[in-house]
Amino acid sequence: MNLYYSPGACALAPQIILREAGLPFQLIKVDLKTKQYEGGDYKQINPKGYVPALQFEDHTLLTEGCIILQWIADRAPEKNLIPPWGSPERYKAMEWLNYISTELHKGYSPLFYPQVFGDAALLWHRDKIQVRLQLIDKHLANNDFMMGKEFSVVDAYLYNILRWSDVTKVDLTPHHHIATFIKKMKERPSVQEAVAAEGIRL
Ligand SMILES: N[C@@H](CCC(=O)N[C@@H](CS)C(=O)NCC(=O)O)C(=O)O
């Protein structure tokens, strides 16, 4: 299995979950600016041109982070990385994944392009993100992890996005429970190994 990634981008969460699941995989680096990878034109592999993408032995491809995370977790049910299909908790996990994807991930994205978005737009996005983070901080006040007592795919994805706060100047200081969450995530061997493999800081 190949996981296409770019250092620090949103393929970090699937990589963490592959490690948590104990599945064998190869990391293949993509230059997101040029859309090139070691084998040439990345768009020949993934016409969407973005990461993450998971490529199987038969060369078929799975894209979209939320779905990749669930696919991996479902391969290792004994690791309890996501509640089982059909359970009410599974829908809760999918609800959080979608929230992180659409409200946080795609909220942070414009902040990487200050030259494209003017100050007013950046301020608007940062304010929106603060509202989203308040909700998550409140949730983490009563839960060790996003799905309760146990680590899940939701935490990997959330950690992946929160890592971008420094570089995008999103202020995390008001969110004490998020700070505790990040600390806990950094203690996980899967997280330490994943960031080391991408050559990025913890
Ligand atoms: N809908 C995709 C979006 C993935 C995405 O935004 N990937 C970013 C990195 S975090 C990317 O590769 N951007 C390059 C591009 O859009 O060309 C998903 O949820 O997996």
Total of DSSP H or I helical runs spanning 4+ residues: 9
Q: If you compute it from the alpha carbons, what radius of gyration comes out, rounded to the nearest whole angstrom?
A: 17 Å
Low-confidence stretches: none
Give the overall silhouette: globular
Ligands, deduplicated: glutathione
CATH architecture of the largest domain: Up-down Bundle
Q: In what range is the share of β-strand residues?
A: 5-15%
What class would the helix/strand composition place it in?
Answer: alpha+beta
Largest sheet: 6 strands, mixed
CATH class of the largest domain: Mainly Alpha
Count of distinct structural domains = 2
Helix content: 40-55%
Q: Please state how the strands of the largest beta sheet are arranged side by side.
A: 4-3-2-1-5-6
Summarize this, please?
By secondary structure, the chain is α+β, with helices and mostly antiparallel strands. It has two domains: about 1-80 and about 190-200, Glutaredoxin, CATH 3.40.30; about 90-190, Glutathione S-transferase Yfyf (Class Pi), Chain A, domain 2 (Up-down Bundle). The protein is about 50% helix and about 10% strand.
